């Protein structure tokens, strides 16, 4: 498939930044979440499964150091040892831990700093990012580039409450500002099609992400997974999901309102077949990229065309 020309995707940016192909290695540090343990709420986000969208490897008995070594060996076999690797702490909120535990987790990666590791990506929530955690991430950043992935999902406060997200847009904006002030790269997460959000909500979320000047954006369609609150709503007919054509149209709206320089790390979501209830599209990631390119071409537009100021980062 030819590279898109109307929006910026991750693979070319990685190649330009690191000079070689780069792959993520998902790691499970056994973290949890403040709206699961009662600090802010119970049950987690309505769309999130019991493994926090992660691998569940730690719970299965695979300690973090072993996860890292096995993953590095697997990627080395796959790429002949030429690709770079991003250590990706994916599950739950990885700075929602004690200082001692964060030191242990980051220490596993720090001990392997150097080839083939080219970066560390730490997923967390905007309300679980204390200053001491940012300071520890900034210290690691002096040895290995550190990215902080923050979930916003939607910039609508009412929807955030309805989906049991239980943080505010203001908390997200503050966290992004502090991440960037610490010299770390920030990647934001968004979901299109959340109940009550609508097409206007997708546009507004992109506008907020552009205003915050996050360097990267991960966006995907609402997916209904087993073992989530949304699964019961969907089965009862209380929850609808976007069809493929609508998603591409909303995605084009979203991309038009980002800043031209923001990197799209993800344009669609996927899940294991047994876990995914809806939507059951036939489109894969390459199809979504091609359809987005075609939709933007049909409109005669591109990423950032409708962003405030239309200025590159």
Which short descriptors sum up this protein?
313 residues, alpha/beta, TIM Barrel, two-stranded antiparallel ribbon, 16% strand
Query: Rough shape?
Result: globular
User: Which stretches are low in confidence, meaning pLDDT under 50 for 5 or more residues running?
Assistant: none
Task: Give the C-level CATH assignment.
Answer: Alpha Beta
The overall pLDDT, averaged over residues, is: 92
Count the beta strands: 9
Over the alpha carbons, how many angstroms does the gyration radius reach?
A: 19 Å
The helical percent reads 25-40%
Reading the helices and strands in chain order gives HEHEHEHEHHEHEEHHEEH
Structural class: alpha/beta
SSE diagram, text form:
Elements: H1 10-18, E1 22-27, H2 64-79, E2 84-89, H3 99-110, E3 117-124, H4 131-141, E4 146-153, H5 157-162, H6 169-181, E5 185-192, H7 198-212, E6 216-221, E7 224-225, H8 229-235, H9 244-257, E8 263-266, E9 276-278, H10 285-299
Parallel strand pairs: 1-2, 2-3, 3-4, 4-5, 5-6, 6-8
Antiparallel strand pairs: 7-9
Helix pairs in contact: 3-4, 7-9, 9-10
